[in-house]
C-alpha cells in the first residue's frame, strides 16, 4: 500500500508549501495547531476526549472559539465519523489491515451538488508516520506527518497541489487528518478494534455523487490476509 505518491510532485519546492504544526499538551488532552511560519499564533485548538465508548475530538478556531468540526472514534468499528461545519461525513476503511481510508470532500468538489472521493494512505519509518491524502486522480493534496515518539510536537501538516492555500481545504484536512491519526492510534492499541477489523466491510463510500469518480481499490484477500497494524508504525509494510 505504501507506494510514495510524493514522487509525483518532486518538482515542487517543499519550502513553498503551506504548513501547519501541531503541539500537544498531555495535561489538558489538547493540541494547538499553528502555521509553521508563525508558531506563536494558533489557528486551531483541538480537544481530545479519549475516555468514552465513542471518543470525541473537537476542533475549534483559536481566534473566536467557534467549533470548526469534530471527530468521533468508535471502540469496535474501524471507521470514524466527523462533522465539518454543518456537514456530517465518514472516514471509511478501504482495507482491513492497512491504512487505506476514504472520505468525501466538499473542498475539492467542482460543484456544490457533488462530493469528491479522497483517499488516505500511509508510509512510516522508525520516527514518523505519514498520512497522505490523495485526490480522485490519486495526486497528493496533503501530508500529515505524525511524530511517533514526540511528547509535545506531535506532527505537521503540509498542503500540496492547486488548492494548497484554500481555507476550506485546510479545515477539511485538519479535521479528517487528525481524526484518522487518532483512529489508527486506537486501532494499534485496542483488542476491540482488532475484532472490529475482522467483521468490517471495507470499501468505497456508497454515494450517487461519488460513485463514478471513486478510485478503484484492490479487493480484500480474505481470511488468509493477516493483521499487520501492530507493526505498521515501525515499518514500511503497512
Describe the fold and architecture.
By secondary structure, the chain is an alpha+beta fold. Helices cover 15% and strands 36% of the residues. The chain has helices at residues 167-189, 191-198, 229-232; strands at 19-25, 30-35, 42-49, 54-61, 67-74, 80-84, 87-93, 101-105, 116-124, 128-134, 140-147, 153-159. A twelve-stranded antiparallel beta barrel has the order 1-2-3-4-5-6-7-8-9-10-11-12. Helix 1 (167-189) crosses helix 2 (191-198).
Helix run count = 3
| Rg over alpha carbons | 17 Å
The quaternary state of the protein chains shown equals: single chain
Task: Note the beta-strand portion.
Answer: 35-45%
Coarse structural class: alpha+beta
N/C terminus separation? 7 Å
The H/E string reads EEEEEEEEEEEEHHH
